[in-house]
Amino acid sequence: MKIHLHKNDLPDGLDFGSSIAVDTETQGLSLVRDKLCLVQISSGEGEAHIVQVNRETFECPNLKTLLSDTSVEKIFHYARFDLAILKRDLQISVTPVFCTKLASGLVRTYTDRHGLKDICRELLGEDISKQQQSSDWAAENLTEGQLDYAASDVLYLHRLKNILTERLLRESRFDMARACFEFLPTRAELDLKGWGEVDVFSHHLRANH
Fold it and tell me: Is residue 115 assigned to a domain?
């Protein structure tokens, strides 16, 4: 595993190919309160590029261009949250998307364990550490442990996507999964607009109080 840390933006001239794994780290999980701190990217070949964003300006033209490029597939684990954060702080829409957590939920129906650690252990035989999950991602100087954790969140996503795609096709659920992936930017927008805990498809729709 090779980790590249970049301050503020990706450097010029990087070529990630047609498919990238993406993750974000924030100071917390509130879409109202907690700012974006890091964006991690991998092309699936054992390297991770970690961008420590400027949390005052969010000026990162190279990163925004890559994430906004509709010719590049973006693989996330729990894309719903990441897409909302990227929309809110970087002001970009990210498509097309593949979400390994959503795909896992559609084909690994024999379990309710769809976290990245769980599916990496079962599908890849990889035991990834979640020790740094609760961490100060806004720190100016990140520890080696934080960088290793951040990188691990993107290094396995390409392999997971391939295995989960095979299972989706086997169970004739790939078209349904793709429709769910296409809906994710709208789901993220609903979260940002205050419908995060409301099932707008429910017959008995109740207002939040």
Answer: yes
